[in-house]
Design a protein that fits this description.
The protein has about 240 residues and is mainly α. The protein has eight helices and two strands. β1 and β2 (about 145) form a beta hairpin.
Length: about 240
């Protein structure tokens, strides 16, 4: 495909942004598991399964407890949907950029909390952030992708790898590599987080800030310079 016919993608849809954010997704998951209650904050499937089990066992206290992270995830999705449209009208920065910037003080706040702070404070906060991120960043250069968990990336890597080899499908060849790279960056985030947790314990989440800051700065530059006239343009998948 030549340059004239190549589809245009906003900076917030580029490969690098999805690699950065799924690395952060892996970082958050390993952090909450290692330091904040032995749970994963990235998705809610496990919490919904445990909720159904608690209801089945008539354990109403546990059921109510599990509704907290599920509700936080629900709220993060709703708020990102509402703010995305409102922020667009201001024509200053994209919601995508603001969300990444918002994660920086959140990580600093969580990292400075005393170790005695209930784990649920960190869990619920990151549930909210992951939901907003999942709902905001939807397509990596036209390919639907998540930045907070890898279940679909594993499926898509396997499926597209078979199609690429069996059918000599160039599109499938590109897609399995894209999804495979997302898995690798998620793993890298988990490794980095685990390493930092071993040294800094609950303070380790501050280690996500340099990655978030780099991502935020690049998105800000795009919003205020070469994509300033495109601030009202809707990313693919919305």
């Amino acid at each position: 495909m030549n340059e004239e016919n190549k589809e245009f993608f906003l900076e917030c849809e580029k490969h690098w942004i999805f690699w950065s954010l799924i690395l952060i997704g892996g970082f958050y998951g390993a952090y909450t598991f290692c330091e904040r209650g032995g749970v994963f904050c990235n998705a809610q499937t496990a919490n919904v399964v445990m909720l159904s089990m608690a209801i089945g066992q008539q354990n109403w206290g546990q059921a109510l407890y599990l509704l907290v992270p599920i509700s936080a995830y629900f709220a993060g999705t709703m708020l990102s949907e509402i703010l995305g449209r409102k922020v667009k009208r201001l024509r200053l920065l994209r919601w995508d950029t603001i969300l990444v910037g918002f994660e920086i003080p959140v990580c600093l706040f969580l990292g400075l909390l005393p170790e005695s702070t209930p784990d649920q404070v960190c869990q619920v906060t990151l549930n909210f952030i992951c939901a907003a991120q999942f709902n905001t960043f939807r397509q990596n250069e036209g390919v639907p992708m998540a930045t907070t968990f890898v279940t679909n990336h594993i499926r898509q890597t396997g499926s597209n790898l078979v199609k690429a080899v069996r059918d000599q499908d160039e599109r499938a060849s590109l897609r399995w590599k894209m999804h495979g790279s997302m898995i690798l960056f998620f793993i890298a985030g988990g490794i980095l987080s685990t390493f930092l947790c071993g040294i800094f314990h609950v303070r380790a989440i501050i280690g996500a800030i340099p990655i978030l800051a780099y991502t935020f700065i690049r998105l800000c530059i795009a919003d205020r310079t070469y994509e300033q006239d495109l601030l009202t343009r809707t990313p693919h998948g919305h």
